[in-house]
Design brief:
- This protein is mainly beta.
- Helices cover about 0% and strands about 50% of the residues.
- It has no helices and 28 strands.
- β6 and β7 form a beta hairpin.
Amino acid sequence: MGGRRARRAYIGSFTAAGGRGVIAAAVDHDTGALTELGATDEVADPSYLALSPDGAVLYVVSETADGSVAACQVAGDRPELTGSPVPVKGDGPTHLTVHAGHVLTANYGSGSVTAVPVKADGTLAAAASSLLRHEGSGPHPQRQQAPHAHQVMPDPTGRWAVSVDLGTDSVRICSLDGEGELSLWREVALRPGSGPRHLAFHPRGDLLYVLNELAPTVTACRWDAEEGLVQPLGETHVLPGAPDGDAYPSEIVVAPDGRFAWTATRGEDVISVLALDGTGERPRLLTIVPCGGHWPRDLALDPSGRYLYAANERSGDVTWFRLDPETGLPRRAGSIEAPAASCVVFG
């Protein structure tokens, strides 16, 4: 090892539901196993996490009514809060990403995206630089009365910030200028009532896949980075039949080689395996497997693409699966206790 630190994973959880906050874990390279190292509950309900480009700082949302974002140093075994949490001027931030020297949050409750500048040392500025409010609604009488931004992430070129809004059935492409000001470039409508929740890009960079929460489907889209344009191509069901009750798809990840994608669906508590053909434009459902627990809120691939991790919120665990490189089939390999688990990210 030559003194090199083992790879780390970080697990977010809901402290209001008994979670331990942010958990740091060591990752076994050969087996994918997680071993808890330490945890901090200094931030309330840290439901989503993102690492700085150099891996030295972990950014954490506080998914509360007066939402905020915080920075933690991760040099030791226990994440350490650095500075005070910064208000995002939005309600219920559910996701964050690092983009162009800023941390961006998607604020579900208030339907907005916030930009917070990152200082040279990786800590956060004292205040947000921009707040971009979404507008609109959808046909679902309970879930789509107002905008609900659910995720924001950079496109593969780093030029654009792309967000999905469950409340307005749309994908928004935004720019961020040198002053930290967010501007809407283009908004693209998806099928009314689909409820887009999360997206993932194909490793080739010319396609993206939107996982819909209100209908258990994935919408494949062509992505034009030059024009900042999303073109929907079609939907694929992620369940083999009608669900027994309401189903709540949560996350989608794509294999580094672009051959497979995996989605998680809460309620049904399954992971769906999708095959991607050479074009990537027509995902095909191959099979479903149990998620290893109850209410899989998040899926994550380890950097090697060999292991898949499910954060099972209501059963309070993170389960990992070894992926068959030929079939894409996940095979359960182990789990770690993580009460109210909400996400997993890798350093």
